[in-house]
Specification:
two-stranded antiparallel ribbon, mainly alpha
């Protein structure tokens, strides 16, 4: 504190004025950070060790919420399983589809800007509206997708009415917003020096060899970003699962994702202490996975200046 006071005293009048102006512009962001991020996190950590039902004051119960989570709540393990399966399917599929789409949108053809806009537009649709549209398209009673499958002589699945197809249908729904990742990949593709690709082509490298040896390695920083964002999003999927299956995860709890379980305990059963414990666990899991991905990045992420 004395060091900060001493440094402030050494500043000139102009420097102090600039410092005050800078702090004034940053102040709204700092207030938002404290009120809407820091305080909710600290409050959730505290409430996770309490029994809190809104109508009663929080009562300290120690680790009881966490013990209940692992030993007395069958919905916990089911929601964890559903979220893991969803993430294992949705994350790689979204990366592959968005990368393939970005490669197509990177082609030098007439009107390519229109296609880029069209593929991004679904990302602007509110999640609830997008999910409802998807449910209508997959409706067993006259949905467009099922009508087309029947016209082709195929028996359409139950989609959101069959537990075996509910999670794959949610994964398909996650591709509705694949345009965001595609545009990020597109930015990465356009940042790759054209001279490297032209030199490889002159040396006789095929299109696949250029993609494998030049494009893909230089695109790994963008893949890292999209991977982290996809993992975070996949474990926090909520709106789509809630619209499709409600708080019970219909059909037969096959769409009961972890975020839906948190919502159900907080706003249906009013067990805010237990819901806070679930939220803290989710935060720890996502943070751990993110750190593991960043640690592994040393092995597979390359930059233009790397000798590898």
């Amino acid at each position: 504190m004395r060091a900060l006071t001493g440094r402030w005293g050494q500043l000139s009048t102009m420097q102090r004025r600039e410092a005050r102006t800078g702090l004034l512009f940053v102040l709204p962001w700092l207030i938002g950070l404290v009120v809407f991020t820091a305080y909710p996190i600290i409050a959730s950590i505290y409430l996770s060790f309490t029994s809190y039902t809104i109508v009663q004051s929080p009562k300290w119960i120690g680790l009881d919420n966490y013990k209940t989570m692992f030993t007395a709540d069958p919905s916990f393990l089911l929601s964890v399983s559903n979220s893991l399966i969803y993430a294992l399917l949705a994350v790689p599929l979204s990366l592959i589809v968005s990368l393939g789409l970005a490669l197509l949108l990177n082609m030098k053809t007439a009107g390519i800007g229109v296609y880029r806009t069209l593929f991004y537009l679904p990302s602007l649709v509110p999640p609830v509206a997008g999910t409802i549209i998807f449910v209508v398209l997959l409706n067993p009673q006259g949905g467009l997708v099922n009508v087309v499958l029947q016209a082709l002589g195929m028996t359409p699945p139950g989609w959101f009415t069959d537990p075996a197809w509910a999670k794959p249908a949610l994964v398909m729904l996650s591709l509705w917003r694949v345009g965001e990742g595609a545009l990020i990949f597109l930015a990465g593709l356009q940042d790759i020096p054209a001279s490297l690709l032209e030199a490889a082509a002159i040396d006789g490298a095929s299109a696949f060899q250029r993609f494998r040896r030049i494009t893909l390695p230089l695109l790994t920083p963008v893949i890292l970003f999209n991977l982290v964002m996809s993992v975070i999003y996949s474990f926090q999927v909520f709106t789509q699962a809630l619209v499709v299956g409600g708080t019970t995860g219909q059909p037969l709890e096959s769409t009961l994702m972890f975020m839906v379980l948190i919502y159900r305990n907080a706003f249906r059963y009013f067990k805010l202490g237990y819901a806070s414990a679930l939220a803290v666990l989710l935060f720890i899991v996502i943070m751990t996975l993110t750190l593991v991905i960043f640690r592994s990045a040393k092995l597979w992420v390359f930059y233009e200046g790397d000798n590898n």
